[in-house]
UniProtKB/TrEMBL annotation:
This is Acetylhydrolase. It comes from Roseateles amylovorans. It comes from the Bacteria. It holds the Pfam family PAF-AH_p_II. InterPro entries: AB_hydrolase_fold.
Length: 340
């Protein structure tokens, strides 16, 4: 209670907030995941247990494949999880995208996956810090490249043959967003040498809750080489709390501003949390959480329409639908979004 406030004031405020939440929940559409529960899944899930022999590193991956005609040309997203994640994570994105004709390959990074949570609990901080080392960041980008190589090879048969090589999209959340940025051209200098992990096959990227490049003082120098369209998603309460690696929501905006290519969009949800974009169901609030998930999955599809078809209709509709939970909405044209 604030000093000097009466008991009736906070109670009334709580009731007003509860009523507002109920009205907002009623006004917004149900998440697609809820609407589709009674429907037959329009996708397949296939697990690959790949090993990169050249690096002696396993690269487990999970593919969400759309129920598409045999002769279809399918866009592909290659998704990188956050620290402590796995190929099973971010399933709401894989299911949603593949249900709408976009395949999604979720890559697991062995050096920074769910294993950091296992073992002696007193060692978890050390495991997290080890997973955040630069060598692992570079290895993650190599995982993404290797997984894409495998996906497009004869090993995956008809699936790989059906992927449209002109519509390849890098995507990731948190540490995976950094991995994505490295994969699309972000560069750092180390001991006078340029560290470049770019995979030129990617034509667009979805960057969710990107941390800063810790230790880099000139973010523009790191991100100005990015030369493909990017979608950036965050929330006003998007805060990373890892010992030695704290990062606030302002860092997500700084990453967006520093990306060199003007074909970029930014969406900021009001409230939320850093982990609201994972499969966790309650972070950011039981009401907001599924809305943000549904909105994020839909926004990525609208972004791909704009990027690959020059069609902004879905983005305009998205803005109208989700405006009540947005702090900042993407513009309908790339160039103007920089100053939105």
């Amino acid at each position: 209670m604030r000093p000097g406030a009466s008991e009736a004031g906070p109670v009334s405020n709580v009731r007003r907030r509860q009523l507002s939440a109920l009205l907002l929940a009623a006004a917004l559409p149900l998440p697609r995941a809820v609407r589709a529960q009674a429907e037959r899944p329009r996708y397949r899930v296939i697990d690959f247990d790949w090993v990169d022999a050249a690096r002696a590193r396993a690269v487990p991956s999970r593919l969400y494949w759309p129920d598409a005609p045999a002769n279809a040309s399918v866009p592909l997203v290659v998704f990188s999880h956050g620290i402590g994640g796995s190929r099973q994570g971010y399933s709401y994105l894989g299911k949603h995208w593949s249900s709408h004709g976009v395949a999604s390959l979720h890559v697991q990074h062995i050096g920074s996956d769910a294993a950091v949570w296992r073992g002696n609990p007193f060692g978890v901080v050390g495991r997290l810090q080890a997973a955040a080392q630069e060598s692992e960041a570079i290895a993650r980008a190599a995982d993404v490249r290797f997984a894409l190589d495998q996906m497009l090879s004869a090993q995956t048969g008809a699936w790989g043959a059906a992927v449209d090589p002109r519509r390849l999209v890098a995507a990731g959340h948190s540490y995976g967003a950094n991995t994505t940025l490295l994969s699309i051209g972000a560069q750092v200098m180390r001991q006078g040498r340029l560290v470049n992990c770019q995979d030129p096959r990617f034509a667009a990227a979805v960057v969710i809750s990107a941390p800063p490049f810790y230790g880099e003082t000139d973010l523009a120098a790191v991100l100005s080489p990015v030369s493909i369209p990017t979608l950036h998603v965050t929330a006003t309460d998007d805060v990373i709390e890892i010992p030695g690696y704290r990062s606030g929501a302002a860092d997500r905006l700084a990453v967006f501003d520093a990306v060199g290519d003007p074909r970029k969009l930014l969406a900021v949800f009001r409230g939320g949390s850093h982990s609201i974009f994972t499969d966790r169901s309650l972070t950011g609030g039981a009401t907001l959480n599924p809305q943000v998930k549904s909105a994020t999955a839909d926004l990525a599809l609208a972004f791909l329409d704009l990027t690959f078809r020059d069609d902004s209709a879905a983005l305009s509709e998205w803005r109208q639908t989700w405006q009540p939970i947005l702090s900042r909405a993407p513009a309908t044209r790339f160039a103007s979004s920089v100053h939105a």
